[in-house]
């Protein structure tokens, strides 16, 4: 009777894709180069730190070298690993090998899970190699172990998010031009994410320990950061699975469920935190409303660009789980309304004195999101852009609406002899429109105009999607 080793049981539990990707990654020259450079760089920095500490034991060197070690790890965890995960999934799309994997019975969700898990496993190897050096900074004085632990957890969550975003982006491009465009977008996102991660690491090394001890709000922020990264990574992975799903699979159920649960949970938790920490401060309510609207705008861009209608096989599926852009658009509007209602209720109940300026800041962002997503739907389905097909047509229409909504009012302002940011003509600009709501009577006019426009174009978008939904049920 043969015995099964622990490594064999672990490989079987992980799945064939994880095993294949990890083996390929460990054999690649990229892994050897960056792993060697990371170890060499950390070793050199550690030797310099040890020599400097021997000369001046009274100086706290921990924060400075902790920042260096964490910065070196960030380059690998925030850029190299996510980019390798993006390229691994992009190669599956380019070579059409993912179809063979689906036919073996693995399914789109298991393929995505395997790509993400293999990338995170390689990231864990990098982190385990750098962890002793990060811990070494504790012995250089000036930084405590809880700070080190919190920083590593936050870094791991941020890396997980970037990996899932990279894998999700690789599944969204269906043409050679689209893949090239997505490639540049992913590079920009990863470079920005790496820069932001390194900058926050530097700040955390200097002030993190003090803020964790003294500020409840900062502790809440750290927990919220980890929760946001993990839940958004879940949404991105579900979106990646929907991008690989076959026509016979319900590609909309997973992303809708993940997004709905994330938004509802985040709104409730963020609302409670705003009440407990900031006592319902009007600024916290405004920031929460704007942040929720921006996030739902990004998620909504993928939701409303879904194909219309659904195959007959899904006729008996529950309404909100059926494929089709109509249900995704409706779900997105409901999420916007619910999150805005929570923030407005917090503002009214705890602001003390109601100020029209902050009241409009809470209510205006969702109106602009509905307006421009609706314009994207209309331009992508009622203009010659529809020849591009979904999802490209709607996403192109949204980008065109944002560009025209920003550039045309500025051009008209200059042509009429005013400054480019002339508020009377930029009332519905996605960049300058919200800034125009702060001023008295003008702010009220902007709110009325934004509300009427959002209702009108939202109704037109819903009607268009509804008619196409009936036509495309085949």
Question: Would you kindly provide a written description of the structure presented here, covering whatever features stand out?
Answer:
The protein has 474 residues and is mainly alpha-helical. It has two domains: 27-246, no CATH class; 251-474, no CATH class. It has helices spanning 6-14, 16-27, 29-55, 62-95, 97-103, 108-136, 145-170, 176-214, 216-244, 253-278, 282-303, 325-350, 356-382, 392-415, 440-471. The protein is globular, with a radius of gyration of 25 Å. 42% of the residues are buried. The model has no long low-confidence stretch (mean pLDDT 81).
Order of helices and strands: HHHHHHHHHHHHHHH
Structural class label: mainly alpha
**Overall 3D form:** globular
Biggest pleated sheet: none
Mean model confidence by pLDDT: 81
Count of separate structural domains: 2
The N- to C-terminal Cα distance equals 54 Å
Number of helices: 15
How many strand segments? 0
Secondary-structure blueprint:
Blueprint: H1 6-14, H2 16-27, H3 29-55, H4 62-95, H5 97-103, H6 108-136, H7 145-170, H8 176-214, H9 216-244, H10 253-278, H11 282-303, H12 325-350, H13 356-382, H14 392-415, H15 440-471
